[in-house]
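Form 12-C: Joint structure prediction
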Amino acid sequence: MKFGSFLLKRLLLSIFVIFGLSIVIFIIARVVPGDPARMALGPRAPEEVVQRLRQEMYLNKPLSEQYFYWIRGVLSGDFGRSLVTKRAVSEDIKEYLPATVELAIFAGILMVFFGILLGTLAARYKDTWVDNLIRILSYFGVAIPAFVAAIIFMLLFGYYWPILPVLGRLSSGISYPTRITGLLTLDSLIQRNFVAFWDAFKHLILPSVALSLAHIFQDARINRSAMVDNMRKDFLSAERGYGIPERVIMFKYLLKPSLIPTVSMMGMEFANIFANAFLVEMIFNWPGLSRYGINAMMSKDLVVISTVFVVFGAIFMVMNIIVDITLAFLDPRVRFSTSRGI
Amino acid sequence: MKASNFVRFLRNGLFLVLVVSLVLILSCAGYTQQEVKVIRQTNTWPCYIDPAVGGDFTASVVYPNLYDSLVFPNPDGSVKPCLAKSWTVSGDGLAYTFELVPGVKFHNGDELTADDVVFSLERIMTIGEGYGYLFKGSVEEAKALEKYKVQFTLKKTFGPFLGALIRLYILNKSQVMENIQKKGPYGEFGDYGKGWLVSNDAGSGPYKVKEMKTMEYLLMEKFNDYWAGWENKDAPQYVKQIGTIEAVTVRTLMSRGELEITDQRQTSENFAALDQLPNVELVSFTNGEVLNMMLNNKKPPTDDIHFRKALAYSIDYQQIIDKVFPGSKPVSGPVAFDTPGCNLNLKLYKLDLVKAEEELKQSPYYGKLDQYPIDIIWPGGTKDREKVALMVQANVAKLGIKVNVVKMTWPAICDIVSKLETTPHAVLISIPPQYAEAGSMLMARYHSSSCGTFFQGEWLQNPEIDAMIEDAISTVDQKERFQKYNVIQEKIAELCPSIWINESAIKQAYRSDYVVFPAAEAIKQGKLHNPNTGYNFYFRDFKVNPEKAQPPYTPFKP
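Section 2 - Result
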């Protein structure tokens, strides 16, 4: 029950945070120089046409009134119309968000699996060549930005050894599965369209690996460090004394408490994947929300900027909550202190 | 460490990696050569396929393929019949009457009639975006006189009207009306079908929309019942416009044989790399675009004609062409040489520091140059223009003129040039003609109506020039009109309101082993290519023979 009220409090606070974020972004987008109506219509559009668009967008009204109209639309499900795509922002979000979610989920899975695996291996074989190799790779991995990794992978697996696709979400000739979730791999699995599933999966490999690379190695380092710290603890000696196999000690008794800092980091990194995906999406022509947001910023597409930032803000909030729940699961002290209302 | 456990782990892991790689390779291999004729081209995005909305390069490439106009442009700037088989012009030049080709079918099978022409004109004028400005200021109304006869009445004579008509693309009225959304800013017409036309077409052109993924690509397929037929049996069956211009992506696609033509936005370095790929050729052609250094004629010190001329004499134009824009052409003046109506006999400015010094000495700012530094603005994303600005900075420093080179984003540039007070001394912008005639460039660049837009950073506001341009454009006889254009260009060259750096060349890389690119062939043979934006990509004239493709080539699966 106490945990339930903690969760409710977090959700309510998140709403306030998103509300505040929306105001800040709304104002910033509008004070940056440039007339969005004129930019959208071009310099040769007659002034009355530009004025009509300005009226539609309430650009002639005070900022507070503009915000009121936007929030009123958002609460009724109308996010406005994009000046770039020329269609409803809600339609765009429906199309592009699942693409980024799918990419982020795959990148997240890679991040979690390989981050924990490599960190555990490095801790298990501490001070051996395995540990040294993983640590060296980690330095490189963390230093390389996602877009550089994307270009390297495209060169390696798209050019020199062309075994993977480099463009979009599906190859030409493969029909898109009927939309259920918007995640092509999931939708095609549900519809038992294994050809589309396999093609969509192949398209995901390069961009998701590029996006997750730095995070994998970052998490490996954190996980290794936490495991090495915990290796010195007395409870491990006790477990060894009881004759518990080393493998069980590593992956059950040592890994769980060592995951606490890693999981905290992973939560933020997962949210970062969403925000930083735009360069990778541009390189692979991935029709995702990050790229959509960046294009909107370049074109001063005001309603899209506000909406995309609010969506990303909401994703950050949700990830924060999931991290808190996961930490509570991993660490009984968190559960105990939460239930006491501390 | 237990070596055997780890070695076992490694062995298992390596085995897994090998199996996955094998599966990937096998799943990618085994494509049988299929003879699907396709043109895959990268291009800037977004791509607007509604002919009343877009006016940029990508849209201009797509429109002539999805839609037809009443007339079709020739390479020499004249027009030939298209949907209109003939036309007459009234004596006063205000009424144009067109006889339409009967039996033309839209992509959905409906027949094209005069009502569709009237509807298309009213739609583009009401919406006012894209190419709407060509008609909004000049056309009073259009009327369907008979089923296949339509008359346009102009507000005033407009000499280039027939040339401008290439941008009036004819839509299927009933199909658009079936798909309007009632809620919209156009009264009874709702949204005028704009929502539906984001990803559908209502045209009669040689290609129709098969698939439109708004942030990825546009796939067009051949319209087999095209009214003008398919004499060219090797025309592509599919055309795919891919929405990316990322250098590494374009190069990878071309090297894998997944691309037939690149976009024109690649850097010189990337074009040089593409040129090295097997069976890839570069083609370079001008499209009437001139790179201008727009000088603010109302702001000290560029408000002084001698100062402006001193700048013009101090620029090494040939070095800029050789080092920064190889393949581009020296300027002919405010209008590019291949734009019909260009004055090829203008006396222009060349690098001459002695003359520059002489001009500067006549300027009231001479001796006080340190008090009047000038800003040269270049748009972010155009690295080549930064190089131009830096070269100018280095050269004019010899005269004692201080230059600040400033990078700005495009939205910021559009914002600052909208007001006289904020327009900088100089800004480097490339402007193409809106239709293939000198008047288009003169109107866009030097008529007062374009002040406050990125077309004109000069704020020339010269009533004499305005009157001359208006008079020339309203002259119906082409020969007379072109003579007037020549006089205007001479006058503008004397005033030196801008510095014309070079005539931009569009470069594209393409697969020459199995693609016949008509514009490239024309350039090779020294013939004219079509100067109208987009018309060099009229895919009905292309020839694609995939059976002749050399490796690497990835067949297209529709």
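Section 3 - Comments
Residues 2-75 of chain A form one domain. Chain A is about 75% helix and 0% strand.
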